[in-house]
Amino acid sequence: MTHRAAAFLICGLQSITAQDAAHAPSFQPSFRSETGIVQVPVSVTDIRGGSVEGLAARDFVVLSDGVRQEVTLDSSDTGVAKISLAVAVQTSGISTPALTKIRRIGGMIQPLVIGSGGEAAVLSFDDEVAWLQDFTSDSAAIQRAVKDLKPGAYTQARMFDAIAEVSDRMRHRPGRKVLLVISESRDRGSKINLEQTLEALGRQGIEVFAAHYSAYATTWIAKPEDLPDSPGPNLLAIFTELGRLGKVNAIEALTQGTGGRDYPFVKERGVENAIEKVGIELHSQYLLSFSPRGDSKEMHRIDVSIPGRIDLRVRSRRAWWNGPEIRP
Fold first, then answer.
1. Beta bridge partners of residue 290, listed in sequence order
2. Is residue 128 part of a domain?
3. Lesser CB count within 10 Å: N end or C end of the chain?
4. 47-55 — which CB contacts under 8 Å span 24+ positions?
């Protein structure tokens, strides 16, 4: 854990229990907004997985379609972008045991992930997509929305359709755009496909993080109180889940394609750990920016590296799009 991320985490944990923290005044620098700027959040870790501090803009090489770009590194001096976070939670009936654990993490979102200057929204998806809370900085409102998550229909979980709605709603939001998906690793019944979903995310520059679970595993370890309306584990659901394990892992594709990360969990502490890790990573990332040259192409590939440092691992988004995603 880096010093800056550790400090943010400690302050966040303290604010969960401090009654007056939400009302305390704080200085928030304005985000540097320029014409034609593409922002690339970059995670850098060592071989042990720990975040790496102290790098400068000159340490990075950013290629757009193979052409090196002149990059700047956003900092507290230039203005750090505020976070807009959408939390999308699967609420299919098969998710009932997991929802018991997920309902308890609402109070962690504001202090640990978005910070005092950011905003979060909460939505659920099963056979329908429902917005439970629009973007707000009110930690209590975020917590209520997560606590009120209720299981719906058994069969469907329209993850891709939910993400498409998030992308559309984030179209004109300033700052950093982040999506946290808490669900199984696979889509069930969406009208759009994975490729269309990745394009929607790419056009808006949304970074996807995930906390995923297996309905098979959570059903077996569920306590009786986690399944109040069920006589016990649904064996048919378990065998159905086993049969789906060979399909495409949507969560892996979404997180890797956008530069985010997936944190699988089974038990309650697992999902709490996932939220903590997402917060630490978001506030440990390097925010690189560049001004692209004029080009009629719509989609552009991004490659980020740190030459000469084979001991480091670099993770970032894979593409950027001309048009809405570039900041006005």
1. 38, 71
2. yes
3. C
4. 47/311, 47/313, 50/1, 50/2, 51/1, 51/2, 51/5, 51/280, 51/281, 51/284, 52/2, 52/312, 53/2, 53/3, 53/4, 53/284, 55/286, 55/306
Nearest-10 crossing angle of helices 194-204, 159-169? 20
Q: Is the separation of the CB atoms in 82 and 174 below 8 Å?
A: yes
Beta bridge partners of 40: 288
Does any domain span residue 25?
no
| Structural domain count, the chain | 1
For residues 259 and 94, what is the distance between their CA atoms, to the nearest angstrom? 29
291, 293, 295, 297: CA torsion to nearest 10: -40
39 beta partners: 289
User: Tokens 């939670």 appear where?
Assistant: 89
The CATH number of the domain holding residue 160 is 3.40.50.410
Residue 269 within a domain: yes
For residue 59, give both structure tokens. 């340490």
pLDDT in single tens digits along all 328 residues of the chain: 555 554 444 454 444 444 344 443 333 333 333 347 899 999 999 999 899 999 999 999 999 999 999 999 986 545 567 999 999 999 998 888 889 889 999 999 999 999 988 999 999 999 999 999 999 999 999 999 999 999 986 678 999 999 999 999 999 998 899 999 999 988 999 999 999 999 999 999 999 999 988 765 443 333 444 444 444 444 445 445 444 444 568 999 999 999 999 998 876 578 999 999 999 999 999 999 999 876 667 889 999 999 999 999 999 999 998 764 433 3
Using alpha carbons, list the distances in angstroms from residue 112 to 14, 83, 126, 142: 10, 12, 27, 13
Instruction: Give the domain extent around 218.
Output: 83-281
Choose among 51, 50, 58, 56: nearest CA to 75.
Answer: 56
Strand partners, 131: 123
* Amino acid occupying residue 67: V
pTM for the structure as a whole:
0.80
Q: Which residue in 169, 43, 4, 157 sits closest to 93, CA to CA?
A: 157
Tokens standing for residue 324:
């809405």
